[in-house]
Specification:
With 220 residues, the protein is of the alpha/beta class. It is 47% helix and 17% strand. Strand 5 (123-128), helix 6 and strand 6 (159-164) form a beta-alpha-beta unit. Helix 4 packs across helix 5 (105-118) and helix 6 packs parallel to helix 7 (172-186).
Length: 220
């Protein structure tokens, strides 16, 4: 058994334990295995161990490894969890099943146009910059609810949920609580929050999916 497969099982057990501790149903939280920077051969054993949902940060990197993997494993779900540039919208719509990083008008417009053109409807999340960090993607939390409504009303986008990445040097709890509050106000039901260092905390705050990379695949 590969180290990544052992790690995958350990992460799943911790998620289940966090669900129980929070009084949530078993299986309430979806595990997204973040495979950025790892090649297809490193990912394949994790797929063979039953993991079906993966996250990638870059469209171009994902294009180099996932089409072949998806051909071999047709039930895979691929999520874009890194910033999206408008000139990559066509490629993102063609490849990804979920895009978690809608964060500005230009991206919403480009995705709406490409989805109509391609006849594909990847599920969408709005990324919220809960820490108001200048270097980080995501919409200002004070504008998030209005932006979700704008995406729905102006572009007909079916926004499924919100996503955030808390500042690395802060307690993530208040950021997770803020995302959950904004999601309720916006009328969406999915919260993508929590990574390798804080996914158990995210489960306690209501995460419906957690994005775990290094705790499964190891250091990059």
């Amino acid at each position: 058994m590969s180290k990544a497969v052992e790690n995958l099982r350990a992460v799943r057990e911790k998620i289940a334990g966090a669900e129980r501790a929070a009084g949530r149903p078993e299986g309430a939280v979806t595990l997204v295995a973040v495979s950025k920077t790892f090649d297809a051969e490193a990912i394949r054993p994790v797929i063979e161990a039953g993991q079906r949902i993966f996250g990638e940060n870059r469209v171009q990197e994902a294009q180099g490894k996932w089409p072949a993997l998806k051909k071999d494993f047709p039930d895979l779900e691929l999520r874009l969890i890194g910033p999206l540039q408008s000139n990559k919208a066509a490629d993102a719509v063609a490849l990804f099943d979920v895009i978690e990083t809608v964060d500005r008008e230009k991206i919403a417009r480009a995705l709406a146009a490409e989805m109509k053109k391609q006849g594909r409807t990847p599920r969408l999340y709005v990324q919220v910059n809960t820490g108001l960090e200048e270097q980080k993607a995501g919409i200002d939390p004070r504008q998030a609810v209005a932006f979700v409504r704008h995406c729905i009303e102006e572009y007909g986008l079916a926004i499924e949920g919100l996503m955030c990445i808390p500042p690395a040097d802060e307690n993530p709890g208040p950021h997770f609580a803020l995302l959950e509050k904004l999601a309720r106000e916006a009328g969406v039901e999915r919260y993508s929050m929590g990574m390798s260092g804080d996914y158990e905390t995210a489960v306690a705050f209501g995460a419906t999916s957690v994005r775990v990379g290094s705790a499964i695949f190891g250091a990059r």
